[in-house]
Each structure stands twice: as C-alpha cells, then as structure tokens.
C-alpha cells in the first residue's frame, strides 16, 4: 500500500513538473505577479471516474474557511428575506453549498452510437472578467492577477448579487455569519457568499489546488491560460472532443474537454447544480458602453463650441 | 429664468434622478424591500439593466457637464451673452459643493469603469476605497441638492 501511494505521488509530481515545464514558470510567481499571464485549469472529463477524491480534498483544504454561523439567526426584515442555512447539512456533496465548493455532476451522452456516463467536476469557472467580482457593490469579491476570483468573507454582506449576476449561479450563501451581524442584521445583508477560491493559500506557496493534487486520474492540469488552451485543443483533437469555457461569458480560466458535445449532454441542473449551456459575455454591454463615456464629453464640448461659433457669427 | 436654462435644469434633474436610482440599484435592496414588485419597476432588480442604465446616464451627465462648463466660459466672451445676468453672476458656495461632489463622482466612477474592463486588475483596497468614495460623493451631492431645493439656493448668485 505504501509503495502504491508513493508511486501515485511520484506520478503526480511528474505530471505537475511536466505541466510546469509546459507553462513556463512556477505557480508561486503566478500567485502574486501581475505581469504574468493568468492561470487556467484544463478539466478532461473523459478521464474523470467520479471518485470524489477532489471533492473531499477541497473540503479538507478549505475547512478553516467554512462558515461558523451564530444561532439563532437575527430576525430578517422584511420576512421575505430567505434564511439559507447549510450548517446542519455540511456533509452534502451532490451540489454546491457554502460547505461544498466542488461537486461531481453526472451526465449522460451518446458517443459513437453508445450511451456513456460522464462525471464532471463542477466549481467556479473563474471567468476572465468575472461579473461576481466586477459588480459586487462592496468590493467584497476580488480577482487576483493570476486569474482566480474569490470572495472576502470578512467583507461580504451576503446580498447574493454575485450569484444573481453569475451565468452559472455558483456562489452559495450561508446566513448568520459575517460583517452584516455587526451592522444592521435585520435590515441589510444576509450572511456571506462562498465559492471555490482555487485554494489561493496553496497557490501562494507554489502548491497546486487541493482538487488537482488529490486527483488519482490527472483529470485536471493547471498552467498559463494560453498553454492550457493549446493543451485543451490537442486533447480535443485526440478524442474528437469538444471544449467549454473558451468563449463562455467572454472566456474563463476553466476549460472543459468532453468526448460528447456539451449541448447533447443530459444532466441534473438546478439550485447549486450549474448548467453547461452557452453563456454570453455578461460584461460585454458594460465594456461597449465604456466607449460612450469617452465620447460623451467630447460631444458635449463640440455642441458648446458649435453654439459659440454660431453666436459669434451672428454678432459679427 | 429663460426656457433655455429651464430645459437644462430639467435634463440635469432627470439625469440625476435616474443615475441615482440606477446607482442604488447596484445594491440588492429593491427586490428585498418590494420596490421592484411594483408594476413597471421590475427592472430595478435586474442588475445588468441598471448597470447599463447607470453607464448611459453617466455618459449623458458627462456630455451635459462638458457642454454647460464650456458654454459658461465661452459665453462670457460674447457681448450679447455678457448682458445676460446669469453670465455675470458667480457660483454660490452650494454650487461649489455640488461641483466638487460631481467631480468626485466622475473621477471615482471613471476608475471603476476602467476596473470593470476585462484584464484590468485593481487592488482590492483601492476598489473598496473607490466604492466608498463614490457613495460618499453621491450622498454629499444629494444632500447639497436637497438643501438647495429647500432653501432655494441657486447655482449662481446674481
């Protein structure tokens, strides 16, 4: 048994070393260096056996960050404000919760005329331009230069806007925890939102995220986004497969490779169970309107100058 | 006051109303407090709609600000305009409060717009500071506007 573990560890470290060689530099640099290209993860669905090693590794690695709510919860005003309490269901692993930031989604599809079951690790996609971060009204969510996005549980008020603007409804709320308890708990806020933070504490030390480290099948590879895209395209070519995450929501730092087209997969979706549908770039309108903000004062100035010129001519 | 100045005030008032409304709608409060349940106000709980509206109103405010500012400076160079009492007056203290708070909104808002572009990383502490300064400038502007309305303080003292 001992020799098996060391063989597995050896294989993992070899794969990681190869991945690092492919990507050019180590993860520690990428964790903090704004000049480095962001990291991305390739998730090869064809390799996943659904063993949930990644799920439990995620839980172990992030347990210190999980919410410790105070009960009873403050009375909410108005009464329609939903209490979301997962503290008594910490063991749930078949969906995303504040205590489960990664789960295995079961999907079925047809490949070469045969039905096949696929198991898909699902978590935050870590968008290139994450609406959860960019539209958070308090600045509680942040994006690191290495591309990961995370929510600061010390600042988040649990308004759930991040979930509302996320194309996949990823962040999950726990009531009865966080800053709102110290402000106006009855009237504003409702806890803290939680989601995958790519094990930023491990990345800072140059280590891999727990889910990647624990996977016995090397389903995931992490590295620079451009290199990961190259690798994803190679894998897709090899298996005559399909990619998800390249263009979705303007591009993400998570690229799935599947042997079955994503729009032909059948899977359970709903609360805490994200879809795999096409996702339009939610921040595109804002980016386009930013141009209007540059043009507008120029147009105003031109109108004033036009009026001045006209009046000057009339005076002459 | 001429129709021309009344028109400008009306446009400014409408922009101020909708930019404030869409700005506050960036916080998840309208759905919580039933306001978006009122028929016709459902859009207040749609964050991408209010986000786009906030940008459009900001563009209109910038256009109006540039127009009014440059027009005020250039008008003093024309003999006809110099006879208009409005162009002879000076800005009141309350007007300066509003101008400074508007400038604060424009500066912080501009950086927040750039921050929202893809590939732009702004430090977490800077974002929080900008959010708070933006909100603070808004509250000062609203306070000054309300005070001016109640005490009938104009922008220009004749």
Short description:
The complex is a heterodimer of chains A (316) and B (158). Chain A has 316 residues and is α+β, with helices and mostly antiparallel strands.
- Element order of chain B: H for helix, E for strand: HHHHEHHE
The radius of gyration over CA of chain B amounts to 18 Å
Tally of DSSP β-strands of chain B = 2
Strand content of chain B: under 5%
Which CATH first-tier class of the largest domain in chain A would you pick? Alpha Beta
What brief labels describe this structure?
heterodimer, A: 316 residues, alpha+beta, Alpha-Beta Plaits, 2 domains, four-stranded mixed β-sheet, 9 helices, 33% helix, disordered N terminus, B: 158 residues, mainly alpha, 6 helices, 3% strand
Q: If you had to describe this structure to a student in words, what would you say it looks like?
A:
The complex is a heterodimer of chains A (316) and B (158). Chain A has 316 residues and is of the alpha+beta class. Chain A folds into two domains: 2-282, Alpha-Beta Plaits; 284-316. Chain A has helices spanning 2-23, 27-32, 53-62, 131-134, 161-165, 200-203, 210-214, 225-239, 284-315, and strands spanning 39-44, 103-111, 114-122, 141-143, 149-151, 172-174, 192-194, 220-224, 242-244, 254-258, 266-267. Chain A has a four-stranded mixed β-sheet. The longest helix of chain A has 32 residues, at 284-315. The radius of gyration of chain A is 23 Å and the shape is globular. The model of chain A is unreliable at 1-25 (pLDDT under 50). By secondary structure, chain B is mainly α. Chain B is built from six helices and two strands. Chain B has a two-stranded antiparallel sheet with strand order 1-2. Chain B starts with a helix and ends with a strand. The chains are: A alpha+beta (316), B mainly alpha (158). At the A-B interface, helix 5 and helix 9 of A face helix 2, helix 3, helix 5 and helix 6 of B.
